[in-house]
């Protein structure tokens, strides 16, 4: 893949394939959860919703592997009992299950299950509002061809406080404020400032917010 292809490709599977091997488990799980959010309207079963809550806690270190495994088993049990008639019902069921299964995947199987979640979010366009998954991936991973180093002087208490609120509250409308704070601290990096001030898709795991907070 070339840098131009990374910046413009509308094929999320190709983008994911390029970054998957070097991506951290946390980043991959955040992509999965964003894809899951896309199909949340299809998750009408309590074990599915409960499993996602555990998966979200796991990403933040508030749940352990045992809890994640338990949630996975409960979701699987529910999946085997769900009966939806007709091709549309089966399609919706498959999308929901793919997203949930990836959300509660253990580390050993996460690599290929995240692809299922990306496919589910992409294919959900047939029954739900489409999600620009490629833009989600670019928000989370930035530009792998031009890695950015966050200089310590930029990471002052003001910038960190703003980034913390953005991350915890998903307050992405405050990214331009973060850009101002970083610039006041001496940051003139066009990629950082442009991402914060641009009108693109922003999600939890945003490479700029993570960079300020020191999250991998």
TrEMBL record:
Domain of life: Bacteria
Originating species: Limnoglobus roseus
UniProt name for this protein: SMI1/KNR4 family protein
């Amino acid at each position: 893949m070339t840098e131009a292809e990374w910046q413009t490709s509308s094929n999320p599977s190709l983008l994911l394939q390029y970054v998957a091997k070097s991506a951290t488990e946390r980043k991959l799980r955040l992509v999965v959860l964003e894809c899951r959010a896309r199909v949340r309207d299809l998750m009408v079963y309590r074990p599915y919703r409960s499993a996602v809550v555990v998966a979200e806690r796991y990403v933040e270190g508030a749940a352990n592997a045992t809890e994640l495994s338990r949630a996975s088993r409960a979701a699987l049990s529910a999946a085997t009992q769900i009966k939806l008639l007709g091709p549309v019902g089966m399609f919706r069921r498959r999308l929901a299950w793919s997203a949930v299964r990836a959300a509660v995947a253990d580390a050993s199987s996460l690599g290929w299950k995240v692809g299922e979640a990306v496919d589910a979010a992409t294919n959900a366009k047939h029954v739900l509002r489409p999600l620009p998954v490629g833009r989600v991936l670019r928000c989370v991973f930035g530009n792998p061809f031009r890695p950015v180093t966050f200089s310590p002087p930029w990471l002052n208490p003001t910038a960190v406080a703003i980034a913390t609120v953005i991350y915890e509250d998903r307050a992405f409308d405050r990214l331009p404020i973060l850009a101002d704070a970083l610039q006041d601290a001496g940051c003139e990096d066009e990629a950082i400032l442009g991402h914060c001030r641009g009108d693109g898709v922003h999600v939890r795991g945003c490479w700029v917010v993570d960079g300020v907070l020191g999250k991998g």
